[in-house]
Amino acid sequence: MSKKVSIEVGHGGKDPGAAANGFRESDINLVVALELERQLKRHGVDVLISRTSDCNDLAADFLPKVQLYKPDVHVSVHTNAGGGEGFEVYKQTNNLTTASYKLCTAIEKYVKEAGQNSRGIKTCNFLMLSIPHVAAYLELGFVDNKKDLAKFDTAEKQKNFAIAYAKGILEYLGIAWVKEAAVGFKVGDKVKVTGAYAGSANNSKATSSAAVGSERYITQIYSGFDFPYRLGVVKGDVSVGNTTGFAYESGICKV
Ligand SMILES: [Zn+2]
Fold first, then answer.
1. d(CA 71, CA 46)
2. Ligand 1: centre distance to CA 80 (Å)
C-alpha cells in the first residue's frame, strides 16, 4: 500500500499569514506545498493537500479530513515573521514525540543542505500537531528579514526547499530519493533564460554570461547533477554552452 502524506498549506484567501517586503506567506506556502506534493507523488506517495489555489483554508477545517485520511506523515507548510532568521521546525509533544523528532531531524538536515540555517527543533501547541499521526510543522524562514527572505524570494528557490522537505519526508518513510530524469528538453531546443546560476560545479568554475531574457540553444543536457537552485519547471538540469566556456543555467523555459 502506498504511504500517505497530508499537507496543510498555511493560510490563504482572506488570510495572507505573515506579510512583509511585498511577499505573502500564503503565496510562498502554496508554491512550496505544490512542489512538495509533486515530488512526493513522483515517488508513489499518496497526498492529501489542504488547498491548491489561493482560497480560504482553516486548519480547523482540514484537521478532521486528516483524521479520516490517517496519513503516515503530516506536515504543515508555513513561513515565519517576527524578526528572526532561519528555518524552524516544530515537533509533537504527544506520545508520537520520538517519531515526530525523527521526522523533523530528517527534514532539517536537507533544509540545511539546501542552504538555509536552522533555528532548531522546537515545540509549540499548534492545532495540527495534536493529531494522532506523525507530524512536523515547518517554518521556512522569515519574510520580514530581508537577508533571510533572499534565500526564498523566487518560486525557484521556494521549490528547492520543497525538494528538501520531500527528501526528509521520504527518508523518514524509508523511500529512496530518485533524481528527476532530464526530460522535456532536447539538444537544439531554443530556450529563454529567466535566471542564471553562476558558481563552481564539478570542480570547474562555471561562469554564466547569459543575460536574463536572452535566447539560447541547448547544447547539452545533464541529469546527473543536483544543483543548489534547481528549478521545478525544468525537468532535469540543462547547460547551455557559450563563448566563455560553460554556463550552467537554470530557470530557463521553452520559447
Ligand atoms: Zn503561518
1. 9
2. 6
pLDDT along the chain (255 residues), means of 10: 96 95 97 96 94 92 96 98 96 97 98 97 96 98 97 95 98 90 59 54 42 66 40 38 38 45
DSSP secondary structure of 35-51: HHHHHHHHTT-EEEES-
- Distance from residue 89's CA to the centre of ligand 1 (Å): 12
Question: Taking Cα atoms as reference points, which of 162, 226, 179 lies closest to residue 248?
Answer: 226
Neighbour tally for 54: CB within 10 Å: 16
- Can you tell me the distance from the alpha carbon of 88 to that of 120, in angstroms, rounded to the nearest whole number? 6
Which letter, b or e, does each residue of 19-45 get, where b requires 16 or more Cβ atoms within 10 Å of its Cβ? bbeebbbbbbbbbbbbbbbbbbeebeb
**Phi, psi values for residue 221, rounded to 5°:** -125, 130
Distance from the CA of 197 to the center of ligand 1, in angstroms?
A: 30
What separation in Å is there between the alpha carbon of 97 and the centre of ligand 1? 21
Distance 41 CA to ligand 1 centre (A): 24
Instruction: For residue 76, report the distance from its CA to the centre of ligand 1, in Å.
Output: 9
Q: Give distance in angstroms: CA of 5 to centre of ligand 1.
A: 19
Residue 234: what pLDDT?
A: 33
Could you tell me how many residues make up the chain? 255
Taking only Cα atoms into account, the Rg of the chain, rounded to an integer number of angstroms, comes to 19
